[in-house]
Amino acid sequence: MGSRADAVLILSAALLAGPAAAQCRDDAVWLRGDWGNARFRVEVADDAEERARGLMFVEEMPASAGMLFVYPSERATAFWMKNTLIPLDMIFADAQGRVVQVHSRAVPHDTTPIPSGGPVRYVLEINGGMAERLGIAAGSEMQHPAIADPVWPCE
Questions:
Q1: CATH code of the domain covering residue 12
Q2: What would the pLDDT profile of 79-90 be if each residue is shown by its tens digit?
């Protein structure tokens, strides 16, 4: 993994690239809103085993990275931080990729459930505090090829 300065530089370049440069790829999630847009390089957790493991035991993660949890259908869900070593933001999105809730700075090792607040199909985990720094909030839109009926379609 590169240095934190490298990660911030990569994230800054992605922010400057703008939505016109957005290309749907399995390893990237775009988010946009009235705050601007951002791209995160992601691993996709789309089966029960991958979703259960999540980001447990990850010691550090570049600023522009994350994990996208994909469920087969919308459902209320909850996450916890057992065996998770770094603080995370959890961005909960509905079946169309619209962000419905953001949980900021989940505490490492905490086993308190963090509920989605309603039915969701996608959850993006990124470094703790990043959503607030960028302005990602409810109403933001997510773009990824796994989103079947997206509010922000791939071009």
A1: 2.60.120.1140
A2: 999 999 999 999
